[in-house]
Amino acid sequence: MTRAADLRQAIARLRVAADPARFAELAQQVNDLAETGGRFAPEAGRLGRVALKVAAQDSITPGTPNGEMRLFLLAEVLRDSLSAPSLAARYLHRITAGWPESPYVPKALLALMELEPAHADSLRDALARDYAASPYVLTLLGTESPAFQALEDSLGSLAPGGRPTPARPGTPRPTPGRPQPAQPATLRAPVEQ
């Protein structure tokens, strides 16, 4: 196998890795292969360096200051910059399990709806049942919530160099080379009984 083929194969395995330890191993492999040169080396080197930074932050726990926010930002990097949806989903699930009272859980559930469309109905139900008063849910349903921008500003302040805030919580950010869904994630309004 050629060096370029080895590199493409390592990148492909990195993008489908769902286990943080395997992801870290593959990030190092991509980084090492990129250092050998070749026409794919610059892009692969960038991916490898970003992946290594993500892998180095896997030790975030509920005791970590702003841990759920940091995991959300890592999930965004995994999803948008590395095209690694499996590990991104795993980090989003860690938010919902480790920080159930966090105001960012609804944002994590909205992101999971995109990454796990087979579970979208149950995620929608959980949002409507458990988080109907969330600024993310209210904004998605068209109700202005001043708390929405405050949450987004806090999240953006942790991102290296800041990050743009989407206009609505279910609106995916465009990423070069990544197909975008035709519609943002939506939530059914709860039915009055």
Describe what you observe in this structure:
The protein is mainly α and 193 residues long. The chain folds into two domains: 1-56; 63-172. 60% of the residues lie in helices and 0% in strands. It has nine helices and no strands. Helix 3 packs antiparallel against helix 4, helix 5 (85-98) packs antiparallel against helix 6 and helix 6 (105-115) runs antiparallel to helix 7. Residues 170-193 have low confidence and may be disordered.
* Percent of residues in β-strands: under 5%
Helical fraction: 55-70%
Unreliable spans: 170-193
**End-to-end Cα distance:** 63 Å
Short description:
By secondary structure, the protein is mostly helical.
Q: Notable features of this structure?
A:
about 190 residues, mainly alpha, about 0% strand, disordered C terminus
Give the helix/strand layout:
Blueprint: H1 3-16, H2 20-34, H3 41-56, H4 67-81, H5 85-98, H6 105-115, H7 120-130, H8 135-140, H9 146-158
Helix pairs in contact: 1-2, 2-3, 3-4, 4-5, 5-6, 6-7
